[in-house]
Protein 1
Amino acid sequence: MALTWIRTHDWDAGTWRNRSACRDTDPELFFPIGATGTALDQISAAKSICAQCTVTRECLEFALATNQEAGVWGATTEEERRKLRKSWLADEQAAAG
Ligand code: SF4
């Protein structure tokens, strides 16, 4: 997945949470337990909500910057973020020069 980061270093500012598509949904949907059976259905449902969200990039960058280990953030699972975080950290270090 090729991503262009926001890189404002201000990922927690503003009102992006107020614009989240998941704001009025059941939080448990975004924090499934495990990665099999019902949890897979929850992950799929959560990601379909993320697909409608206008602040996916802000949400994902926040999750990477604050190392959110659990749940679906920015249309990614914890496993997907673990893989993304390495390249995100490398990009952060490169941007810092
Ligand atoms: S990207 Fe997904 S988890 Fe993040 S705010 Fe939007 S709907 Fe919620």
Protein 2
Amino acid sequence: MLSGDLMPSAAAKTPASPAPAKRGLLELRCVSKVFRNSPTAAIQCIDLCCQPGEFVVVVGPSGCGKSTLLNIAAGLIAADNGGAWIDGRKIELPGPDRAMVFQEHGLFPWLTAEENIEFGLKMKGMPRAERADRVQRALRMVHLPDAGRKLVHELSGGMRQRVAIARALVMDPDVLLMDEPFSSLDAQTRTLLHEQLQEIWLANSKTVLFVTHSVGEAVRLADRVVIMHANPGRIRREVPVKIPHPRDFDSPDISEVVGVIRTEIEDEVNRIHAETAEQVSHA
Ligand SMILES: Nc1ncnc2c1ncn2[C@@H]1O[C@H](COP(=O)(O)OP(=O)(O)O)[C@@H](O)[C@H]1O
Ligand SMILES: [Mg+2]
């Protein structure tokens, strides 16, 4: 029989449980897509990894493949080569681990704000009381606690986008995919929504992959800005934004990073123009 000293204690038998892995690791590995009837790849062998809780913003000239990249991460279109993974699971279709917010809010106009937000939860079969609670929390998160009963046409553009964000957040996804969600809004509303999105992201620690053509918007929000190369769409450069959150949007640190990225994009636009001019002269 083992003596007391040799008997392993209960504490020694139970190894210290490791901290639960954070969810929301999004990996794109050598993702390519060529659309039919197109001479060049929309995107070509893009490698991009977003860490759990990281805010990554993709910028680049129109047509460089930003939306294609996001749609592949969403599972809305299939890559021709390579693929996308979320927490090690291959992305084949849209799923509850990801939610997308588009430039156009895509709300159902015949439903109220809260019915729109509730829609996905209802589809999931969540009981009414829990749904109501989650919808109210989501409305508070986007600073619209009193707008739940309003129909879509009774909301301003900024309010509609906030409802669209609440609709995405209410599903509690691990990754938020946002395709130019604020592009159709005026500058003042955009600034308000940058502040609110920053606050929501800090409170929820979701992984965010955000697409925009606005460099100012990118630097305000991002941990890392990915600058695209066009024709074919590739990553041209990545710029980390090492400014602590929450950020003062008027800080000179922000202007400095904006300057670096603008110069890089101008170089890319000049490269595209030179390439186009050369093609025309050889035609
Ligand atoms: N469904 C599609 N069919 C054919 N071509 C497409 C389709 N979607 C995008 N493209 C083309 O792929 C390229 C990248 O488009 P997109 O990803 O929308 O760029 P961005 O979002 O950066 O403006 C463009 O040349 C565009 O015309
Ligand atoms: Mg686009």
